[in-house]
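Section 3.1: Structural characterization of target chains.
Under the original work plan, the team committed to producing a structural model for every single-chain target entering the pipeline before any wet-lab resources were allocated. The record below documents one such target. The sequence was received from the expression subgroup and is listed exactly as submitted; it comprises 334 residues.
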Amino acid sequence: LWHGLAASTRKTYSTGQRQFIIHAQLNGLYNPDGSILPASEPAILSWVAHLGGRVQPKTIKAYLSAMRSLHVDGGLPFTSVESPLVQRLVRGIKRYHGERDRKPVQPITLPILTTLLAQLKPGTIPGDTTTYAACCLAYSGLLRSGELTVGKGGKYSASLNLSRRSVQFLPTFADATHVRLTLPASKTDPFRKGVTITVAAAPGQLTCPVAALKALFIETPRPDDAPLFEQLDGQALSYSHFVKSIRNALSLAGLNPEIYAGHSFRRGAASAAAAAGYSDYEIQLLGRWRSDSYKLYIDNDPNRILHLSSLLHVAFTHLAPFEPPALRDFTAMA
């Protein structure tokens, strides 16, 4: 039962669950038998009203999902979250307090990636070969930061994280035109069947992921079960270390490092694909998205929008109402 949810999900849920229990204790919102669970509708309403204006409406909804999970774990009935009163209260909070705009990390587009890589000196400065290869692969493979690194406090496992075995150079190491990367576990692969993605080489380009990985394998040979990316201390590349490394390089390039993070590569590659005219299906395929959520990652080019707007003034207007070709010269039967 415990493993029915990912450890990261349980960690996220624990925040909302803990806040409800504290609120119930402070306000004496106990059941007649003195228990807090199952949560009563008045207790949930009091808690949600307390959260209004303090956290985002979407956070309140996430907290309610956390409470539902807590009841499922305990085999307890929990219908309060589906209550029309609770739903209307959440909607009222959103209408009254509003919802702040998202402030996602900015995309690392190809020009920014090239600028970032120019600050690194692989083969000269220790650790730069790893950072260089990780950046190229993150962009080219549209990788999630959790697929590339080990999370805070996490321990490396070859069955969960990228290892040297995860990379296969094809057709050969010497003449590789692409790599086949196997992700042992990912967000859309909860049962750890493994997901294989193909990443093409970009011969002659600074951003070529295949060349960067080959340089890494040559400079620091490791056993097959060793982490694909390692820090100078020999530990698997952590998220915090990776972000610190790219921000240092961005700072050297004169860019604001605080607006970029590990997910910036995935967002930048998705935006580049959209700007290049890739179809929705192709972008979802590259990024392994199962829904339209990929659209949240795409930044629309202001120049493109300006161009489309200008075309409205020169668009050709049909003198006659448009009708499909199949209906032209159609004679109805009596």
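The chain is about 45% helix and 5% strand.
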